[in-house]
Every structure is written in C-alpha cells, then in structure tokens.
C-alpha cells in the first residue's frame, strides 16, 4: 500500500527521528494507517480489526489527526458524543433516583418487621 502523509501532526511526529528507530517507525506506520482510515480508504476486514485496536491505543493521536483532516466531521462527531454523554447522565440520575426510592421502600419494610436503622 502506497502511503502519502497528509497530516502535519504525523509529519511533526516524524521530524528529527531516525528511520532506524524501529519502534518509532512502527508507531508512525500505525498513525499513517489511521490517517488512511480517516480519509475513508477501504481496508480488508482483518485490517479493520487492527485499525479499531489502534484507534483505541492511540486515541489522542487519532483525535488530533481526525480534527486536522476532517474538522467539520470531527465537530459533528464531538457534538454527537457529548449528546450521548448527556443522555447517559440523565439516564443515570433517573436510575439513581429510582434506586433511592426502592431503598426507602425496603427500609420501611425492614423497620416494620422489627429491623433497626
């Protein structure tokens, strides 16, 4: 697969590093694959599994590359994620309130049969 680095973020990660530094080179290679993924280049299914793992492992790098190459899509995704988080918080608060009510009911039953606080 031919690679062309578009992201300044990746280019800056390459600067001043030797190609002989194998660990850094592998790291950069993964960032380049993430860049290709962001740019919607198709991968074989087995490569998609690796890319998903790399997205998690290099999540900060992935976000920076994504933000640089597709800023509008990044903003949209960020808004959607924040909306999901807000919904989960509201759901959690509702569940917490229900749990507190259940605990109060259990406490009443507990005390009614001779239990103590």
What's the gist of this structure?
With 117 residues, the chain is an all-alpha fold. The chain contains 5 helices and no strands. The chain has 2 domains: 69 residues, no CATH class; 47 residues.
Topology record:
Layout: H1 8-14, H2 22-38, H3 45-57, H4 59-69, H5 71-112
Structure description:
There is one protein chain. The chain is mainly alpha-helical and 117 residues long. It has two domains: 69 residues, no CATH class; 47 residues. 77% of the residues lie in helices and 0% in strands. It is built from five helices and no strands. Helix 2 crosses helix 4 and helix 4 crosses helix 5. The longest helix has 42 residues. It is elongated, with a radius of gyration of 24 Å. The mean pLDDT is 89.
Shape: elongated
Euclidean distance between termini CA atoms: 69 Å
Q: How many distinct folded domains?
A: 2
What structural category do the secondary elements indicate? mainly alpha
Helicity range: over 70%
Largest sheet: none
> Which residues sit in consecutive blocks of at least 5 with pLDDT less than 50?
none
Percent of sequence in beta strands: under 5%
Number of strands: 0
Question: Radius of gyration, rounded?
Answer: 24 Å
- Series of H and E elements: HHHHH
**Number of distinct helices:** 5
Mean pLDDT level: 89
């Amino acid at each position: 697969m031919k690679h062309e680095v578009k992201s300044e973020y990746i280019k800056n990660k390459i600067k001043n590093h030797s190609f002989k530094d194998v660990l850094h080179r592998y790291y950069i290679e993964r960032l380049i694959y993430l860049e290709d993924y962001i740019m919607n280049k198709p991968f074989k299914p087995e490569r998609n599994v690796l890319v998903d793992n790399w997205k998690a492992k290099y999540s900060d790098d992935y976000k920076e590359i994504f933000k640089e190459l597709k800023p509008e899509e990044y903003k949209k995704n960020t808004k959607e994620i924040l909306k999901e988080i807000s919904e989960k918080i509201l759901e959690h608060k509702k569940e917490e309130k229900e749990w507190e009510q259940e605990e109060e009911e259990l406490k009443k039953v507990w005390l009614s049969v001779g239990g103590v606080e």
